[in-house]
Amino acid sequence: MPTTMIAATQIELNDEGFFVHPEQWTEEMAAELARRESIDPLTDRHWTVLRFMRSEFLDKGTGPTVRALGKTSGVSVKELYQLFPKGPAKVAARIAGIPKPRGCI
Amino acid sequence: MAKRVVILGGGTGGTLVANRLRRLFSGTDVELVVVDQNDRHVYQPGLLFVPFGLAHSEDIVRPRQRQLHDGIKFHESGIERVEIGANEVHLHDGSVLGYDVLVVATGASLILEETEGLAGPGWMDKVFTFYTPEGAGALEAALATFDGGRVVVNVVDMPIKCPVAPLEFCFLADWYFHERGIRDRVELTYVTPLDGAFTKPVASKQLGGMLADKNIELVTEFNTSEVDGAGGRLISYDQREVPFDLAVVIPLHGGASYVGRSIGLGDALNFVPTDEHTLQSKVADNVFVIGDAANVPASKAGSVTHFEGETLVENVRRHLAGEPLIDGFDGHANCFIETGFHKALLIDFNYDTEPLTGHYPGRVGLPLLKQSRLNHLGKLLFQSVYWHGLLPGRDIPGIGATMPSSGKIPVAATGATTTPKE
């Protein structure tokens, strides 16, 4: 399992770059995680999505899919793709320090 | 006092649950009521064959009531909403049904309006879906006069009913145009939001190879934002475009609309949060969910619904008797994948084991993940098994509800690599 230093903390990530221990995540890590996804700077709109994903994960045990995000986060699917062009659910989950959303089968 | 079980939906799940419950509670005073908005039960696997003239819509539709055993009431009405706190279902015809146990079996619906332009210019003219009898029939007429050009098959988003059906459509289209002698004038393209042909690695590799063999182009990670029927192009959220002369689109799926009108019943897409092993809903102890209406991470497929039936019915009995529920359902799914030229392949999997090669249901049996004529015959025979075995709620001899492993070749032995499931 690869580990990496983020905000002076040793973090364990899985092969796809998702946090193995979501409880290790802090808000201070987000900016650095975002830069690794070529997102700089993180705007308030990004933070709306990140905080929403985080709370959905803590509430339900899995992050939302893009469609569910578009319906419930207050950010439309179109804007989600503008904020996170390489795939909102996956990229936002990496930056928010939560596991890959268990969406499609 | 008599207990009442209300079953919403008279499709695959609702019908087989009602019939199983009737047998279980025969001679007792449990009242069973099935509610549906119409009396047309569609054999949905048959829709795939309609566009190619291999089946006709009237042959795959039967009355819902006739599939229900004696002693089950059928109430034909649309559903306005469920009040889970009051244990009541409010119907469009004004009646209110109280229940002791509610079984949600209203499946998945197509949400065209979630995709810009999908229901706009060109819809049912050069943009079709085969996921409804009307769409499949219209597509048959359009294909019959199609004499060359670009055909795209596009899955808007997962989850969809029968995730292999769009691939089967591609394989059958290849065969269909070949038989008509115009295959060299048709460009076939499969456009998917997934990163490969299918969700699970071993099957994805096998099916991806078959697309290439049949000269069907594969476009991956395409999240459809807009269908421009007039201009003949699909547009993704990241601004990629795929041109077409004829598009076959599988729209976004959601649960039934009344779920959205029922406070606390469904999630953002109107699927009902459900325990993946007990099939009890997470929204109320006396609400159970079968088939496509549930948010469980299993395929939305008739075989899954059939395998769920045993656990769900046992847990309804246990709930009524005040006993603890069983964790009976393992996510078991299997499906024949029609590949054209009188052949099909078979896949069999569950929550923990992806589709593998080998044989089903044991070492001697149908070949898995491999094209064969035997599997094609199996697919054809299945329609009869559906009406006469599945819907009456019978166990199919030799085919257990839990996934068999004995005939399968593990991933390590096939040399395939595994990646975490999507």
Layout of strands and helices, then pairs:
The complex is a heterodimer of chains A (105) and B (422).
Chain A: E1 3-6, E2 9-12, H1 30-36, H2 44-60, H3 66-72, H4 77-83, H5 88-95
Antiparallel strand pairs in A: 1-2
Chain B: E1 3-8, H1 12-24, E2 30-36, E3 40-42, E4 61-63, E5 72-76, E6 79-83, E7 88-91, E8 96-98, E9 101-104, E10 108-110, E11 127-128, H2 133-144, E12 149-155, H3 165-179, E13 186-191, H4 201-213, E14 216-219, E15 224-228, E16 233-236, E17 241-243, E18 246-250, E19 253-255, H5 257-261, E20 287-289, H6 302-321, E21 333-340, E22 343-349, E23 357-360, E24 366-368, H7 373-390, E25 408-409, H8 411-414
Parallel strand pairs in B: 1-2, 1-9, 2-5, 9-20, 11-18, 12-13, 12-18, 13-14
Antiparallel strand pairs in B: 3-4, 6-7, 7-8, 10-19, 15-16, 16-17, 21-22, 23-24, 23-25
Question: Which characteristics define this entry?
Answer:
heterodimer; A: 105 residues; mainly alpha; Arc Repressor Mutant, subunit A; two-stranded antiparallel sheet; 5 helices; B: 422 residues; alpha/beta; FAD/NAD(P)-binding domain; 3 domains; 24% helix; 26% strand; globular; disordered C terminus
Structure at a glance:
The complex is a heterodimer of chains A (105) and B (422). With 105 residues, chain A is mainly α.
Which blocks of ≥5 consecutive residues of chain A have pLDDT under 50? none
Mean of residue pLDDT values of chain B: 93
Report Rg of chain B.
21 Å
Written as H for each helix and E for each strand, in order along the chain, the element string of chain A is EEHHHHH
Strand content of chain A: 5-15%
Quote the average pLDDT of chain A: 89
Under the CATH scheme, the architecture of the largest domain in chain B is 3-Layer(bba) Sandwich
Q: Tell me the count of domains of chain B.
A: 3
The rounded distance between the terminal residues' Cα atoms of chain B is 48 Å
Structural class of chain A: mainly alpha
CATH class of the largest domain in chain B: Alpha Beta
Strand pairing plus helix content of chain B: what structural class?
A: alpha/beta
Number of helices of chain B: 8
Give me the CATH fold name of the largest domain in chain B: FAD/NAD(P)-binding domain
Poorly predicted parts of chain B: 414-422
Largest interface: A-B, 20 and 25 residues
Query: What helical percentage do the residues of chain A reach?
Result: 40-55%
